[in-house]
Amino acid sequence: VQLVESGGGLVQSGGSLRLSCAASGKISEIYVMGWYRQAPGSQRELVAAISTDLRTNYADSAKGRFTITRHVTEKTMTLEMTNLKPEDTARYYCNAGSAALMVPGPAWGQGTQVTVSS
């Protein structure tokens, strides 16, 4: 499975961004797709994940501000981020292939940078 992210950038605090992930390869084997992020000096952490039956899991920091969606037939996934805060600054990675909503799968994209200025 190959994953390509897009949509990162620089935004002011309180602003919004939309991240997209396009998947190719053995798509039929993907159950869960998700977004993870990693800030400098920190571990990579789950932001949100979604299954093929559209069950979701959000990190507490994302609840109420971020929305994950998935278009199974189109093989894409998006993350709508609103009310962004400086602490959301990180590199965001698309992930796929897990059998559970709480742990990452083996496939990773290259990541897209999100920077939120105060």
In a nutshell, what does this entry contain?
This protein has 118 residues and is mainly β. It has no helices and eleven strands. Strands 2, 4, 5, 6, 9, 10 and 11 form a seven-stranded mixed β-sheet that branches.
Write up what this structure looks like.
This protein has strands at residues 2-6, 9-12, 17-24, 32-38, 45-51, 56-58, 66-71, 76-81, 90-98, 107-108, 112-117. Strands 2, 4, 5, 6, 9, 10 and 11 form a seven-stranded mixed beta sheet that branches. Strands 1-3-8-7 form a four-stranded antiparallel beta sheet, with no helix packed on it. By secondary structure, it is mainly beta. 30% of the residues are buried.
From the spread of the alpha carbons, the general shape counts as globular
Unreliable sequence segments: none
* N- and C-termini, Cα separation: 37 Å
What average pLDDT do the residues reach?
94
Please provide the count of β strands: 11
Radius of gyration: 13 Å
Report the sheet with the most strands, covering strand number, pairing sense and barrel closure.
Answer: 7 strands, mixed
β-strand amount:
over 45%
SSE topology string: EEEEEEEEEEE
The secondary structure category is: mainly beta
Count the DSSP helices: 0
Helix content: under 10%
